[in-house]
Specification:
This protein has 506 residues and is of the alpha+beta class. Helices cover 33% and strands 24% of the residues.
Length: 506
């Protein structure tokens, strides 16, 4: 795949050889591995450049069923995941809202996810990400670890390749029809697509987190659930990663940063002491202080979106494009879903079935819609928590919010994707939140824990819709029901789920 120009030397000095690929992917996390694998499976030449050497640490351990039974099934790693021994996640458990007792939802109640696919996994990302990366290699992707992408190459008004350094510091150039930036929230490339990265005012938070041994587990059959607990200063996540190890993190508003400054050990213990339920679950636990899980880490400003997701020759996927508050475990879902959308677009263009603008406009519209419905769901979810004395929760009351960021953002989403004039004004979010809170209250109060009302609420139906479609397409393939375009004049998915097709009504 190495080529030299016709004039391959100047005054006796050799030019740098330029390798040629159809696609080069920067980043080997779930988004990068997914897009690279799905394109290579169509017979295209794909190079994946990853700056670290796997396995490596990464945050974001809680998955949704659409990743496990949709995207991972398409990738061909379902059996490997099942054999890995990851804790099974059947839903979520929350101490959130007006009720003092925790309440639980189950994926099995959703008609889109019932049956054998009504679960996900809690995963150690070091292991999960390596499974996906090694699978990419087996599927024909040229994976190079320890290689850091330093910039993109531009020509003829499009991105035409990248420059990177190898583990020995050698510099290289690669040309490609498409460059995919899957290098995460710390990407050095994302700005090359144009636009700006806008950070959310509503989710303007900090997270302090670490890992513990021998914490308590929820009662069966929900021992593998994520536990999310609201308290005065914010909320905790509590994620079982094995029979004995648990990921524990406290999310606080940036204006309360003093709570996590200074000695992080003391800061985390003080936050745990503020939250009786988490204190109880960690009563007999000890914090891990060595190895990849031994560090107490802080992450900030982790809700944002880029105003452009692509330009000719370049596409952003995963956290390079956007990320939203992690309370509903949407991070890996949005990463792998965006990678699937990008792969369909790339495959369609490389097969000369569609032009680049048509294919990538579909990618961006669907990706923005999915981010938008999770954003609205999460704002509604925050809004339903009742704690009038807490500064953190008062700041989350949409009806009192002085910022216009929520409305302006979702109007962007509506304008780009659905064409709806006002996808989520403050009034609509408050209405949706009240509907969701009433459904949760009805569910928690029922003797049999009937969750149907919650799945009928609009914000829950929205966040389950596309993930359910991905799962059904992966499981049923050509036998799946023919789909309609998600947007007027939009495209539909090919029977094998790997490309886009123009919509032709019967």
């Amino acid at each position: 795949m190495t080529s030299l120009s016709s004039d391959d030397s100047i005054d006796g000095w050799w030019k740098m050889p330029v390798e040629e690929f159809d696609v080069v992917v920067a980043g080997g996390g779930p988004a990068g591995s997914t897009v690279a694998t799905l394109v290579a499976m169509q017979g295209h030449r794909v190079l994946l450049l990853e700056k670290e050497t796997f396995p490596r640490y990464q945050i974001g351990e809680s998955l949704l069923p659409s990743t496990v039974h949709g995207v991972c099934r398409m990738l061909g790693v379902s059996d490997e995941l099942a054999a890995a021994g990851f804790p099974v996640k059947r839903g979520g458990t929350f101490r959130w809202g007006a009720r003092p007792e925790p309440w639980t939802f189950s994926f099995a109640v959703s008609p889109l996810m019932n049956g054998p696919t009504s679960f996900a996994y809690q995963v150690e990302r070091a292991r999960f990400d390596e499974i996906l990366l090694r699978n990419a290699q087996r599927k024909g992707v040229d994976v190079r670890e320890g290689c850091s992408v330093t910039g993109v190459i531009e020509g003829d008004e499009r991105i035409t390749g990248v420059r990177y350094t190898d583990p020995d510091g050698g510099e290289h150039e690669v040309s490609a029809r498409f460059v995919v930036d899957a290098s995460g929230n710390k990407s050095r490339l994302y700005s090359q697509v144009g636009g700006v990265r806008n950070y959310s005012e509503f989710f303007r938070s900090l997270a302090l987190f670490g890992y513990f041994e021998n914490g308590k587990r929820l009662p069966e059959p929900y021992s593998g659930n994520i536990l999310s607990v609201a308290f005065d200063s914010g909320w905790f996540w509590y994620i079982p990663l094995s029979d004995t190890m648990t990921s524990v993190g406290a999310v606080v508003r940036r204006e309360m940063a003093e709570k996590i400054q200074g000695d992080r050990e003391k800061a985390l213990q003080a936050l745990i002491a503020e939250c009786p339920l988490i204190s109880d679950y960690l009563a007999d636990a000890r914090r891990i202080t060595t190895g990849r899980y031994g560090e107490l880490r802080v992450r900030k400003d982790y809700s944002y979106h880029q105003t452009s997701y692509w330009r000719p020759g370049m596409i952003l996927v995963g956290d390079a494009a956007c990320f939203v508050d992690p309370v509903f475990s949407s991070g890996v879902h949005l990463a792998t879903y965006s990678a699937l959308l990008a792969a369909r677009s790339i495959n369609s263009v490389l097969a000369e079935d569609l032009d680049e603008k048509t294919a990538l406009s579909e990618f961006e519209a669907r990706y923005r819609r999915e981010y938008g419905v999770f954003y609205e769901f999460l704002v509604s979810f925050y809004q339903m928590n009742v704690n009038e004395e807490s500064y953190f929760w008062q700041a989350k009351k949409v009806t009192n919010n002085k910022h216009t960021e929520i409305e302006s953002f979702v109007e962007l989403i509506g304008g780009v994707s659905s064409g709806e004039a006002a996808l989520a004004t403050a009034g609509r979010i408050a209405e949706r939140s009240a509907e969701f809170a009433a459904a949760v209250d009805q569910m928690a109060a029922s003797a049999d824990g009937n969750m149907v009302p919650m799945y009928k609420s609009e914000v829950v139906k929205q966040v389950m819709q596309e993930g359910g479609q991905v799962q059904m397409k992966a499981v049923l393939g050509a036998d799946a029901e023919p789909e309609l375009p998600l947007f007027p004049g939009g495209l539909v998915v090919s029977p094998d789920g790997m490309k886009w097709l123009p919509y032709r009504p019967a």
